[in-house]
Amino acid sequence: MKTDVMEVCLLAGKIMLQSGAETYRVEDTMMRIASSFGAKESHSYVTPTGIMFSIECEQPTKTKLIRITDRTTDLHKITLVNSVSRQISNKELTLQEAYQSLKNIESSTPSYPIIIQVLAAAIASGCFLIMFKGTWDDFFPAFVAGGTGLITFIYAQRIVPIKFFSEFVASLIIAILSWIFVYTGWGYELDKIIIGSVMPLVPGLVLTNAVRDLMAGHLVSGLSKGAEALLTAFAIGSGVAVVLTFI
Amino acid sequence: MVVEQLITSFIASAAFGIIFNTKKASLIKCGIVGMAGWFVYFTMTSNGIDPVPASLAGSFVVALISQFFARRYKTPIIIFNVAGIIPLVPGGLAYDAMRNFVESNYTIGLGLAAKAGLISGAIALGLVFSEVINQLIRKAKLPPKVYSKSRL
Q: What's the predicted TM-score (pTM) here?
C-alpha cells in the first residue's frame, strides 16, 4: 500500500488535536511534515472540532477535511507526535515509517492506569486543601472526595458522553461527600474541602490553551475553547450550588 | 509553614502531570514548575500584596521556567505550563462567588466574580509577557530569516 503525504499530515494533526494540543501547534506540525516531504505549499485551517488541510503539488491541489468529535487530555501523545515530526524534519523517517509510527501512537493506551490517575487526583486534592490554608485534619476528607470525584467523572463520561453532564455529576458527588464528612464530624471546613476536591476537574488546560490561541491570532479556536472552559466552570459551580442550597 | 506549602504544591503539580498523562520523566519537572509559581504567589500574598499582581508574577515565573525546560528537553512547552498554572487558578474565589450567589448575596458575589476574572486575566498576561520576552531573546540570537514563522 502506498501512503500519501496527506494521510500522514492529517493523522498527525488528528492525534494532536484529540490529545489537547494548541491550535497553532497542530497547524505548524502538519505544515512542517508536508514541506519536509516535498510539498510546495500547504494550507491548514484548524478549529477544535475539525481540520481542513490542503496540499499543492504536481497533481491537482488536494484538500481534505476531517471531523474531530472527542477531545481528551493526553500530553504524552503530543510529545510523541512532536518527536516524530522532528524526525521527519531531519529526514530520518520515510513516508511509510512515519505513517506506521503515527498509527502506533494513535492506538497506544494511556501510560497510567485509572487507579493511579484517581490516586493522583486524590493526593492533589489533599495538597490543594493545605495550599488554600486548610488544616491537616481535613486532608483525609479532601483526599476521599477528590478521588471519588474523578472516578465519578470517568464513569459518568462512559455512560453519558456529555462532558458538561459528567462534570456536573462529579462536582455534585464531591459536594455531597464533603457535606457528609463535615456532618459526621470527620471534617471541619466545608468550603475548603469542596474547593480542594474540585480542583482536579478545573479546566486549567483548556483555559491556558484558549489564551495562547487567542494571542497567536487563532480567534475562532480561542473563543470556542474559552467557551468550553466557561461551560466546564459553570458545570462544576452548579453541581456544588445544588448541594449548597439544601444546607 | 513555607516548607509545607512548597512540598504540597510540588506534589499537587506532579499529580496533575499524572492526570494529564505526562510521561514519568517529566513529572518532577512539572512539580518544580508548579512549586516555583506557587512560591512566588504565596510569598507575595503573605506579604500583603494583592492576589492579582501576585498571580501575574506567579504565572510569569511558571512560563519562564517552562520555556527553559521545553528548550532544554525538546518537549512541547504545554506539558510544563499546564501543570504549573493549575495552583494559581482562582478556584477558591470562584467558589466563594458562587456560594454568595446561591445565598442571594448578589453584590458580594459579583465583586468576588470580578476578582476571579481579573486573576484569570493576570495569569494569561503573565504567560504572554514571558512569551514575548522569549521571542525577543530568540530574535536577538537568530538571524531574522530563521524565524519568519513565529512560533509562540
A: 0.84
